[in-house]
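--- STAGE predict ---
source: upstream dedup step, 1 unique chain passed
mode: sequence only
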Amino acid sequence: MAQRESREDTAYVEVLDPNRQMSDELFAEEMGGAVAAKEFPFRLDSFQMQAIIHLERRDNVLVSAHTSAGKTVVADYAIAMAFRSHSRVIYTFPPPPPHTSFTFTDRYNQSSRARFTKISVDLEYTTQQSLNT
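--- STAGE serialize ---
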């Protein structure tokens, strides 16, 4: 997909319609024949398709949705785009609960080109009550 020459004709913010139905055919047409950076083993939701189209157009994308809506799919695709173009990625996410064994490298270890550096910060949470004592 060709990168846009001029950004003057685009809105600063485009709010996507999460209720817009998008067929696989329309998605392929909107992708303009671009080779997908990542294939998913499931059908994408409409908002995910719309976000990926904007990513491929080199638009900035911000996804805000409730927990378990599928936001990470868009992040996964953006990371795959960076791998495809041999770019660097900074991906931040909240730490998983202590009882899980999930790690970022487990999730993205599928790319042999990827090199990961884990930066973690241990935070001590203090309740308001303990501050008043």
